[in-house]
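Weekly puzzle thread! Below is a chain. First person to post its structure in token form gets bragging rights.
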Amino acid sequence: MAADPQWFANDVAVAAAVVSGIALAVAVMSAWYARRQALASERQAGAGEESVRLQAVALKSSAEDTARALQLAQASSDAAKASADALQAQAEHTRQALETAQRSAEAAERLAEANEALAITGQRGWLIVFKAQGAAQHLPEHSKVIVRAAFVFRNVGKTPIAKIFLRHCEKVLPHDPKGYSGLTLERHATLAPAAEIELSVLSECSLDEFSKVKERELKVYFYGNAMYEDIFGYSHEITWQWEFDGDNLFVSEKGNTFKASYE
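Winning reply:
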């Protein structure tokens, strides 16, 4: 049996309508899916922007906090430096004040010592060789010459002196004596102001030696030292040296000194 053209046409139309409906449904579904993807992308983009914004806000806040912390640290450093400078200045002022006080104390001590020394100097006792004389006695029968010397030591101070150790020596030498070896010791307890100690000594020399003394090749030396204490407890020492040239006794240019100990 032959097919009906009309029926075939209707079938084709129905098939076309079905296909068209399917295509429309697919297009609608695709549009809906695309819209959902677009919305999802838009929400994702919005979330990303918000995250970036929040991160930016957080970074800004952190930077501001860091800046404030740096400002506080700088302020604390400046305050510490100012405090250190103030302490250093105070220490310098204290050092200068201490130095000034030390200098004042030393000056006061020196002034007190000077005043004490002046007061003591005006009152202490002084032992000196006040007078000396000498002469030669020829003893041809004994082939020698005796040179005698007499010394007078006087306390010319205003107060007594004590513990006097008087040492003396007599030698015929071509030059000044060195040192005080072989000295004879005499002790005296106390010597009042203006009081005196007499010391008589002699030196023997041969006729030949005495002729050399006259010719200035030799000299007869009388020398020694004395140590004593004043009433203030200070120790003193004098040394003396005299020469006899065959005719006269006179003081040597060397060997006469005075020393005082204030310890």
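Puzzle host: Confirmed. Bonus trivia for everyone else. The radius of gyration is 63 Å.
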